[in-house]
Amino acid sequence: MSRIMDVLRRYLKGKSIIRTMMFSFLTVNILLLLLLGLLSIRDSTASLTEELTQSSYKIMEQAARGLSFNLEEATRPLVILAGHYSVRALMNPGRQLDVEGRIQHERNLADVAFGVTSLQSFISDILILGENGYVNNLDGRITLRWNYPFTEQDWFRQAVSGIPNRGFIPLGLHKQDYYMEKYISKYDQPTLSIALPVNDHTRKPIGAVIANLDLNKVSGMFELTANQNNQSVFMIDSRRTIIVHKDAEAIGTRLAFKGIERIHAEESGSFITDIDGRETLVTFHPTTVKGWKMVSTIPMSVIRGQADSLKSNLFGFIYLCLLLNLLISIVITVRISRPFGRLLSALDKIGEESVYVISNHYKYRELNVIGGKFKELVLRIQTLVRQNYQSELARKDAELKTLQSQINPHFLFNTLQLLQTEIVCGSTEESNHLVLSLSSLLRYSMKQSEEMVELGREIQNVKDYLYILNKKYDNRIDIEYRIPDQEILKHRTIKLILQPIIENVVLHGFGENPVSARVRIGAVSVKKGILVAIRDNGKGMTRQQLRMLRAQLDDPDHRPEHIGLYNVNQRIRLKFGPDYGLRIRSKPGAFTAVYVVLPKV
């Protein structure tokens, strides 16, 4: 065991292939196990959520059926009372009853009320209210306030002016402030009512029969098994006001949480939202009354809590797998480290003895191949050293030609697409100009016999390039050339040094969407020779970015992959010496200026 630990300590100390393999294996397996655990927990939570959602649907569907049945039962006495001749007689505003007739009609209503009271437990009271001021209820007005303005209430006006749907008019929620204060169970308590208008022989409403429902019994239908999951089932109206709830204090409050608009926008459904700072599963279902919806809420913490047993078992399984992975990693590391150690020991002796100390028996085929290849490599080193001097002489000439021959295939592809667009749109003049500019660019860049050209030809190449590029951006780049002395255009310079700078200006200064873009190109004589200035009003560079770019330009051993400025600077210095090349100035959000210093040739 101590030998194994020594091997592990030696090969895991510092950065090594063995350590990388071991930790990579462990890391990948740990991540896979954690991912498996997270997915399992997520799926179990989602499954429980779906199960509780379906359970809520069933509860609310049963409650909806019970509510519909009880509303139909509650409608029957309303129909009987609304059509009873005694009710019409007592409410008739154009007919004056004598005392004897009034008493007889009251007795008739008392008989009907007795039947309702004995058979209808869903109804807490029935109000018989006439436009002429007639007031009565199931207990013969004993509990009612005589001076209460029933006919002025909004719910009464709705009862006499509404149109029955499914046999009744839903009045919604209102306070029972018309009872005497000594009747605590009813006074000023909220109630949910349905009504039927009472019409005279001309079918004109002369009053209404209103049934106040027992909210406790309605809420009892909703609860059923809801309390098993800390579930709350209640009913709201079209104004999102709670009209039935097991908590009496919640009745009459208005719901307001994210996503509540879906409850009335959709027939039924479920969603997860935040209610009073807790993530909650909300399920809703329609009722037979238009605008009334049943809503179920279950805290997500309850749902996730039911998955705790699964989490415990899963974490135990993950811990066991991690332990097994660690043991397997140690065994694999030891088996691989031994032949690697033999090979490294043999390589250490190369400087002291012959290269043939490397054998071809390292247990693994890959190590045997490495040993054999290393023998060949050492034997070729002397030959490569002899060839190094000649290769270095040819390097500068090859590098110069490579820098000159760089062509941007994306620019060519975009130009051909632009030309296709102009041809399809029928722009003959623009198409012709594009073809001429592109052919001039290609002819200029591919003519290998010319290394040096006049500055005027180089600037004309830039004009062709900018014309094509500006067409791509719908001429949103303002271009200006300032060359006061045309004689300097006759001096010769290296071909294709300005175009990469322009490409860099547009790409890094303006991006793919130039807005209010401006490019100024100028050329003047200076003490050292010729100064070509290219200035833009792009996003510029920070001091750190500018310092880094200047350092790259001054480093002859720097080899960036896609920096045209570096290529141009190296070509100028290889041709004319270190006194010439590029100078750059920039200010963030204001400008970038590239100055090309050339000799007069």
TrEMBL record:
GO terms for cellular component: plasma membrane. The keyword ATP-binding applies. The chain crosses the membrane at residues 314-334. It comes from Thermobacillus composti (strain DSM 18247 / JCM 13945 / KWC4). Keywords: ATP-binding, Cell membrane, Kinase, Membrane, Nucleotide-binding, Phosphoprotein, Transferase, Transmembrane, Transmembrane helix, Two-component regulatory system. Residues 398-477 form the Signal transduction histidine kinase internal region domain. Residues 48-296 form the Cache domain. It is a multi-pass membrane protein. Residues 493-600 form the Histidine kinase/HSP90-like ATPase domain. One of its GO terms (molecular function) is ATP binding. It is found in: Cell membrane. This is Histidine kinase.
